[in-house]
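Query form — protein Transcriptional regulator, TetR family

QUESTION: What is the three-dimensional structure of this chain?
INPUT:
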Amino acid sequence: MTVQERRARERVEIRELILDAARELFVEQGYEGVSMRKVARRIDYSPTAIYLHFADKEALFKELCGRDFAALAAVFQELSTIRNPKERLTACGRAYIEFAVAHPNHYRLMFMTPMNLPVGEEELKNRGNPDQNAYAYVRSLLVECMREGLFRLELTDADLMAQTIWAAVHGVAALEITQCKADAIDWRSLRERSDLMLEAIMHGMARTSEHLPDLTKTP
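ANSWER: The structure tokens for Transcriptional regulator, TetR family are given below.
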């Protein structure tokens, strides 16, 4: 390995160290409670060293969020082989909860850390792109379900439906992360709670069985 290659690898390793420390601090103290100096102190580096990698706290925070949201979108993309859009939507709900539980600090940063930052140009570009944005992916699935006549005809607002489903899966995920170690409640398993919630949501939106199209038939 050349000197240049070793330095490049070390730079990547330091950048990852900074990101890991920053994620922990943002989750613990919130966006407003974190400073670049605190991030530096967490990993025993000087603030100057942090600024060599990130211009400011906002850049650091957006890098973390961009990575984490892209990871969630990639999880949804893996489900694209499921032909029935309603089944794919249900699978996305399960995958969302599994992602949250597998990566609790990532999830806390993404969805449980208050923030009020301006939306960047890259974020605006990806906002409606199902390949890059998990919300856009779910919304596109809902539009597909409506187009194929799988939902009640009066349900025409894809954003309202997406946000309602999001609220439901977030509730299960957030409870699992923050409350389910407590002994005050006899908690049922995560899978049982997830499946019942998704079944209730899908059943509530679905048309009655006699009106459902047969998706197994080739047009």
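ADDITIONAL NOTE: The chain is about 65% helix and 0% strand.
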